[in-house]
Amino acid sequence: MRIDLLVQGAPLTTGAPERALKFARAAIEAGHRIGRIFFYNDGVTVANRFAADETGARADLVQLSAQAEFELAVCVTAAGRRGVRANESLAEGFTIVGLGQLVEAIEDSDRLVSF
User: What's the whole-model pTM score?
Assistant: First the structure.
């Protein structure tokens, strides 16, 4: 089963990226495939390389995405509103994309899980 994740909450205030990471690990261990993790609203702050990675979620997400070969997609509009820019502050391993990528994830996945 292909599962895509939508992360909307900020790392320090909601723990959404950490919960998404735990879910992704468990899904992969259960034999499922993660297609993409899409970061939207305050969830995009996890992709800011200048923000402290106090929980370690950013590094762990990048490592897991490289191992399991899925995309860490960051909404360009939400990122821009929060100071995350592709050539300036975007952390390695993340990709700036349009909202159309979320629509594509919804169409292509068997499940979309939101955090």
Answer: 0.94
Residues ≥6 apart with Cβ < 8 Å to 66: 93
Host H or E run for residue 3: strand 2-7
65: burial class by Cβ within 10 Å (0-12, 13-18, 19+)?
buried
CB neighbour list of residue 42: distance below 8 Å, 6 or more residues apart: 8, 9, 10, 13, 14, 78, 82
What share of the chain in percent tops pLDDT 90?
90
Catalytic positions are 75
Segment 56-95, tens digit of pLDDT: 999 999 999 999 999 999 999 999 999 999 989 999 999 9
Residues 6+ apart with CB under 8 A from 70: 33, 34, 35, 36, 37
- 78, 40 contact by CB (below 8 A): yes
53 pLDDT higher than 90? no
d(CA 102, CA 6): 8
